UniProtKB/TrEMBL annotation:
Signal peptide, first to last residue: 1-30
Native species: Ilyodon furcidens (goldbreast splitfin)
Coiled coil (residue ranges): none
Pfam families registered for this protein in UniProt: Thioredoxin, Thioredoxin_6
Gene assigned in the entry: ERP44
Annotated InterPro entries: ERP44 (IPR052643), ERp44_PDI_b_1 (IPR041870), Thioredoxin-like_sf (IPR036249), Thioredoxin_domain (IPR013766)
Protein's name in the database: Endoplasmic reticulum resident protein 44
Every Thioredoxin domain range: 20-142
Keyword annotations of the record: Signal
Matching CDD domains: PDI_a_ERp44, PDI_b_ERp44
Amino acid sequence: MKLLTISPSLDIRFAAVILLVMGLSTPGQAEIVSLDSSNIDDVLNNAGVALVNFYADWCRFSQMLHPIFEEASNIVREEFPDTKQVVFARVDCDQHSDIAQRYRITKYPTLKLFRNGMMMKREYRGQRSVTAIADFIRQQQVDPVKEIHSMEEVNTIDRSKRNIIGYFEKKDSDNYHTYEKVANILRDDCTFLAAFDAVSQPERFSGDNVIYKPMGEGVPDLVYLGSLTNFDLTYAWAQDKCVPLVREITFENGE
């Protein structure tokens, strides 16, 4: 009986093929999700943060952005491996003009930020570089709620800004998760703070409590009277307080 022998050169070639296959399937490589009418709502609604590239194939600047966008997504995926925490996606606006119209896309490429399916007012207008895009996503992952460790801190808040303060029995609660979701969406419009446990007790007369402190000294506080487990009501109340009817138009908030 003869035994099959493998030459050293064949062994090396076989190992090289295995390494190549492993390299191609490295789990660190991120996917750019292509969005269309059949999946866009599902993908965006289930993403904590989604950065969407609205592009057109004929556009030279869209073509230039593709490799930059993909490399930035790879870097971000390594830092935030949860595929529902951060999503990089794209829409071919020529193929899906209905989606472009839905989000009022009039120029290419346009980078829009979404949180839990809701499009943010401010589009990405930073540098079209790998570093800048990755840094932008890192900033979006910073907790928008500052924790209060003593009630004395409330007296030192900046009254030149709009402040919303939540007083919660515990951080791991449906009430706080709703508050945190609202804070993520309105992080550019209001300062959000929260106190927990014994620190918050003096303000929790009948359960968890949220208070809006308007700009200016001596202006009375406004208390949220709705259900904190109802996101739509909580968001509508906070948006009404954080986003004034008359706003100064700047380059950043022009959208």
